[in-house]
Amino acid sequence: MIHLNEPVRRYDVIVVGGGHAGVEAALAASRLGCHTLLITSNLDTIGKMSCNPAIGGVAKGQIVREIDALGGEMGLAADHTGIHFRLLNTKKGPAVWAPRAQCDRIAYQMYLKSIVESQENLVLRQGLIDDLIVEDDTIKGIITNTQHAFLGMAVILTTGTFLRGVIHVGDCSYSGGRLGEPAANSLTARLTKLGFDIRRFKTGTPPRIHKNSIDFSELHTQYGDEPPCFFSYRTPSTFHVEQIPCYITHTTLKTSELIRKNLHFSPLYSGKISGIGPRYCPSIEDKIVKFSEKEHHQIFLEPEGLSTSEFYVNGASTSLPEEIQQKIIRSIKGLEHAEIMRPAYAIEYDCVLPYQLHSTLETKRIANLYLAGQINGTSGYEEAAGQGLIAGINSAHKVQNKSPFLLRRSDAYIGVMIDDLVTKGVDEPYRMFTSRAEYRLLLRQDNADLRLTSKAYEIGLIGSEQWKKVQKKKELIDFEKKRLRIIIEDGQQCADILKRPDVSYDNLKAANTDLSIEVKRQIEIQIKYEGYIRRDLEEILRLGSLDEERVPAGIDYHKITALAFESRQKLSQFLPDTIGQASRIPGVTPADIVILRIWIRKGKHRSTC
Amino acid sequence: MEDTIAAISTALGMGGIAIVRVSGLCALSIGDVIFRSARGKVSDFSTHTLHFGTIVQDNAVLDQVMIAVFHAPHSYTRENILEIHCHGGLLTAQAVLALCLQHGARLAEPGEFTKRAFLNGRIDLTQAEAVMDLITAKTNRAQTVAMKALQGNLARRIELIRGKIMNVLVQIETCLDFPEDDIKTQTREELNTALDEIITQIEVLLRTRHEGQGLRSGVLVALVGRPNVGKSSLMNALLGRERCIVTPISGTTRDSIEDITVIRGFPVTLTDTAGYRNARGLVELEGVKKTLQVIREAQIILHVLDVSRCYSEADRTLANLVSRKRVIYVCNKIDLFYKIRLPSWIDAEQVVSVSALTGQGVDILRKSIGDALPSEDPYCKLDIAINLRQANDLKQALDSLQQARQSRQCTLEVELFAQDMRLALNAIDAISGRGVTLDKINNIFSSFCIGK
């Protein structure tokens, strides 16, 4: 029995979970001046990369740079602990370039742990959460499995795969939040009781093998870029990294045969796993079954760190029994003698369908309760961290009576992601893609600082020094762009010459050699994309007002009979905050939006029957 | 959209019956108040039923009517609909309409019933526009095309094009988002072939615009020529009735006279003009001005010549005025002595000889006019005739696709190609109304006649 009138410590913000979402949330809230508690079931696994020891990638790398521009920690952590850096997609245009790094898993955890431990206003505590304290549809605190209560003005849940997590390896399945860690088994019941719509998702991870058991002579070696492309705008370019390579190999016909023969052992195919997995990150058995015409599937071998011999077998995620895993791994070229150190497994877990969230990531049902990361049905460290940051900022703002901090679809990938979550919901684990962003040419990894630094500076997550640096950069770019419009070379404006595909800034006779590489790149990109960007900006201006138009709370959509029946249902389910959000709910047509706007404008006016 | 709308849906004027249509939430309850029947209340009637009764105002019977009841969503507008079939004539229907308005309905705006059908998702935008085309169709051909569009002929074709654009886009987006997966992507040739196919299909649809314009607005044919060459007689001959006053005195026609005939399924508006010469009186000066304006608006010019008189300076001036138009030289009065010598730059194929008096050659002239109308090319077989709005959206899609094809050829920047494909997709979506903006919707529907 909990006695709430006993003197208990009262926090501004309580963050439950210490993964990628939890860390960013706790750091943001405490840095914004909130007395913050970070409580996690194991203080040794703060910032743990449960799956691939890599940060970034296409669209994800953009998110990391956005987190960094907003004052988050992920970019710095990856830069400090990265052991293999690559800029992806460089054969295509800069809008889709994306940084990615393999990181030393343990070093990454240690780095983040030291950051949170030394953070002012932030208290760390080990504990497993069993229950929530809710009064008048408002969250008041949390209760641990040892019946200890913590009171807080706002609570952020970042439970990852721990909510009723069940690990599957072949026929065996057992409760667990991650390999070797206990699941949080009581919280779901509480969330269900509060009325939340819960869904079961599934994900998986490949085996780890011993470095000495790999025959590297057969493998294609992939080296990191030199100089490395860092994530953080705050990491000095002189920062030195000793990089180590990754390796590429592929499955064989024997692999396919083995998997087909043993498919009935897979809990995925035997029907034992009912949770929905990510289509974009399929298990090896899925790949073989769904793409049977392919003889080989690519496998990346990635080092887990400098101080360990474990290698991550990227592309071989599976939930087959261990002895079959061993055979499968050994059917891969170069892994004929590989020793598995940790088996692959699939994990099922609960998530809260995200249509139940405001754009601040506060739940619509329970005030001051925020959700971030995998609990919202997303997958990926970067997606989680981005949400953590937004939930952290907004919980702090709520506690401090400040206005919400929102990123629009035209501001950032983080804005696209959250808008997708709250207006479209999820029917499989949500991963970010550049194709999800309608303003892809604007939301680039190279301009995250120009897009977001001033927003972070305004709320106090970025210091004036960094802000001034970015302002200066902006000025240099604008000045130089204007100059290139004035200077004529060979009868043509320099700006027009630069638009030609084969011309770079340094090819111009008028080039200013004093400018930094980043500034030159910005000028090139901004001028080359000019026409497209202008069109985008016009559209943003045109559609932007819809996101300012608020939908009053408490509308009974079923009363708006002019709306198509499906739209009434969708709107009642999603309860959009703005007309813009409403317009993006699938199944809601432009016509419905007209009706809704007229209805709202007319207010209480009704014709009499 | 909460309110209930009402209007007289049949044409105004004398007729056997007139229909007052009421649509909206309160349609049935309005029926309860104004309709009396031995069989009970309107709101108790099941959907799609017809009932006899009286319309009652202040306990006095206004009219004996049949009413048809439709329940949402199984109705034209997807709302509750009441159709009151009153006795014809203006006054009765208007009194019934006034009664509906008195009980809470609002007078429908032009096209509002169809607008609601669209807004409530029963039809897409191309179908809504087809309704308007159907109502205003002047010829069988126009009626056929409109009906096909209402059945979704155009919508399906647009959907097909959309699917193809989507296909290309998905490939490109996949290669942008998964650089490290060894995905088999389309080769440049395959991509170009796919793009060309889409472009061709859009161009085919765009070409139907020509016919569409003809079918909707009709084709304007102007009869011009010197005074007394027989323009008015020719017009009468083409119409097959006496429309113009014909006298042997030159300059009888001082104003332009129009009438419509149907040639090859197109409504053809014939306009007779005042004879062209140096104006002598004020009235004639006005006539000449009017003639010049008609020439500007006309798509086809019939330059009428009198074979019994010489090709004159005035004919030459006229020829210059109409040089940019499709011209047919009509040599009239072939029943008389042949005196004219046509200038050599007139192509023999442009000349038709007739006698408006005897009717000789008039059918050949009709055929020549028919040949000058929007061509009966393979596209007409599509039974599609797009309108201006659809053409504009298609053109936008075409622009983006051509831009995409170009960017694909000269640079490696796939993301720009993808951007153009996305824009093309948006433009295609606008045609069916998927991504259409509000002001556009209102524009489209305000051109409807009231009641539909």
List the helices and strands and how they pair.
The complex is a heterodimer of chains A (609) and B (452).
Chain A: E1 10-16, H1 20-31, E2 36-40, E3 54-56, H2 60-69, H3 74-81, E4 82-88, E5 98-103, H4 105-117, E6 122-126, E7 129-135, E8 138-144, E9 149-157, E10 166-169, E11 172-175, H5 187-193, E12 198-205, E13 208-210, E14 220-222, E15 246-250, H6 253-261, H7 284-290, E16 298-303, E17 310-314, H8 322-330, E18 340-342, E19 345-352, E20 369-371, H9 381-399, H10 413-424, H11 448-459, H12 464-486, E21 488-489, E22 492-493, H13 494-498, H14 517-528, H15 530-548, H16 565-574, H17 579-584, H18 590-602
Helix pairs in contact in A: 1-9, 2-9, 2-11, 3-4, 6-8, 11-12, 12-14
Chain B: E1 4-8, E2 17-23, H1 27-34, E3 35-36, E4 49-57, E5 60-70, E6 81-87, H2 90-102, E7 105-107, H3 112-119, H4 125-136, H5 140-150, H6 153-177, H7 188-217, E8 219-225, H8 231-239, E9 257-263, E10 266-272, H9 282-297, E11 300-306, H10 313-321, E12 326-332, E13 351-353, H11 362-372, H12 388-410, H13 414-432, H14 438-446
Parallel strand pairs in B: 1-7, 8-10, 8-11, 11-12, 12-13
Antiparallel strand pairs in B: 1-2, 2-6, 3-4, 4-5, 5-6, 9-10
Helix pairs in contact in B: 3-4, 4-5, 6-7, 6-13, 7-12, 12-13
